[in-house]
Specification:
The structure holds 2 protein chains of 2 kinds. By secondary structure, chain A is an all-beta fold. Chain A is built from no helices and 11 strands. In chain A, strands 2, 4, 5, 9, 10 and 11 form a 6-stranded mixed beta sheet that branches. In chain A, strands 1-3-8-7-6 form a 5-stranded antiparallel beta sheet, with no helix packed on it. In chain A, β9 and β10 form a beta hairpin. Chain A is globular and about 40 Å long. The termini of chain A are far apart. Helices cover 0% and strands 48% of the residues of chain B. Classes of the chains: A mainly beta, B mainly beta. Chains A and B meet through β4, β5, β9 and β10 of A and β5, β9 and β10 of B.
Chain lengths: 109, 114
């Protein structure tokens, strides 16, 4: 059974204080590793897809990386508007996504 | 604008009543999905459909039913058999061919059953 575990559950940062979120996965035949951002009461917003170990993708202050067992979402010099829950999901061969519980990030001005 | 719409945003029902949640997409995507989100838990897959007139059970299908009569529509019925129906329900869609495999989500429906 595919499993995705995210840590920490919650992260409180000062504006400008860089940090990383972890996503550990156990899937048979990884097709893709996905990161989403979710604001309270809204649907998840797609951020990145990573397909193979060593791959990296960036968008503004966010950078996602992938190894054979983990993915990291690095937030560089965060701003209050980066406050959200970040979800990680892994896809195995049958195109279903297995989601982690998320990391809730709060950035204080 | 292309996207996924879910209605209503909030839904209140009494125990014992069936309720249907709407999901429509104009992205011309082949696959559609229903998830349930509870506090502190990851999204859990209820049902998915990769093509019109075909759908498969996800991990928590008991007490739910779906139909896929049109490519753009994938309604979810929460039946009275679902023991804990109060949750945030999310619909998603994905293009059925080639990379990428990411799913795009609607805004969600919050269902409260009392």
């Amino acid at each position: 059974e595919d499993q995705v575990t995210q840590s920490p559950e919650a992260l409180r940062l000062q504006e400008g204080e860089s940090s990383s979120l972890n996503c550990s996965y156990t899937v048979s035949g990884l097709r893709g590793l996905f990161w989403y951002r979710q604001d309270p009461g809204k649907g998840p917003e797609f951020l990145f897809t990573l397909y193979s170990a060593g791959e990296e993708k960036e968008k503004e202050r966010l950078k996602a990386t992938l190894t054979k067992k983990e993915s990291f979402l690095h937030i560089t010099a965060p701003k209050p508007e980066d406050s959200a829950t970040y979800l990680c999901a892994a896809s195995s061969n049958d195109y279903k996504l297995s989601f982690g519980a998320g990391t809730t990030v709060t950035v204080r001005a | 604008d292309g996207g996924i719409t879910q209605s209503p945003k909030y839904l209140f029902r009494k125990e014992g009543q069936n309720v249907t949640l709407s999901c429509e997409q104009n992205l011309n995507h082949d696959a559609m999905y229903w998830y349930r989100q509870d506090p502190g838990q990851g999204l859990r897959l209820i049902y998915y459909s990769q093509i019109v007139n075909d759908f498969q059970k996800g991990d928590i299908a008991e007490g739910y039913s779906v139909s896929r009569e049109k490519k753009e529509s994938f309604p979810l019925t929460v039946t009275s058999a679902q023991k804990n129906p109060t949750a945030f329900y999310l619909c998603a869609s994905r293009s059925g061919t080639g990379d990428p495999y990411e799913q795009y989500f609607g805004p969600g429906t919050r269902l409260t059953v009392t």
